[in-house]
Specification:
alpha+beta
Amino acid sequence: MGKYVLNATKTGYTFHLKAGNGETILTSEVYSTKDACENGIESVRKNAPAANIEDQTIAGYEEQKHPKFEIYEDKGGKTRFRLVARNGQNIGASEAYNSKQSCKNGIDSVVRNADSPVVEQEA
């Protein structure tokens, strides 16, 4: 099973969802408070299992309703995804993947690990 690692930073709080193998599969934005960060984790738990996949790397892709995972190509030509909540807010983003299939595997891992426990780490 995976885990959410909640970190205090100089400017606020972040979380990383890690798979059972320890790999980070989703990274949050910086939240101003710990409560807001914990709400972000709850948002992953709520939205990831219900999210559709919108592949923005395909010309003329079909836009999906929120919540959704958006697959896109970054400036370096790598494939990434972000999880967008029902309200249209970005919840978290992935690392860069070398292939679209690896990116889709990352999405599957977020869905499988969405219900993981939270552990805290020091800054």
